[in-house]
Design brief:
6% strand, mainly alpha
């Protein structure tokens, strides 16, 4: 996380600190990013440090799956032929809630 940063990328709500090699995405996309990393870890044995896992768990909790992420997820699942379990169960729950 970058504290006290300036937003220098116009409308893009993201910050970069090149000196400390840090990147801070917008709050409303952090959970999406976390779930992508969880998927990569599961499918491709991506290694995550303890610090990264803790950050992504927090992001997943703070930014739950929403309808937009479910639409993107469904398109990816159709193309790839297999689900992302870190998104699927929450999309299934959202779909049931709408019924």
């Amino acid at each position: 996380m970058i504290y006290g940063e300036q937003r220098v990328y116009g409308q893009c709500d993201a910050e970069v600190n090149f000196k400390s090699k840090a990147f801070e995405p917008a709050e409303n996309i952090r959970g999406d990013i976390a779930r992508t990393y969880f998927y990569f870890k599961k499918e491709y044995t991506l290694k995550l440090s303890k610090k990264q896992r803790q950050l992504y768990i927090a992001w997943d909790s703070q930014d739950p799956v929403d309808a937009a992420e479910c639409r993107i997820y469904k398109l990816k699942e159709e193309k790839q032929g297999h689900p992302n379990p870190f998104v699927k169960s929450q999309c299934d729950t959202l779909s049931l809630a709408k019924m």
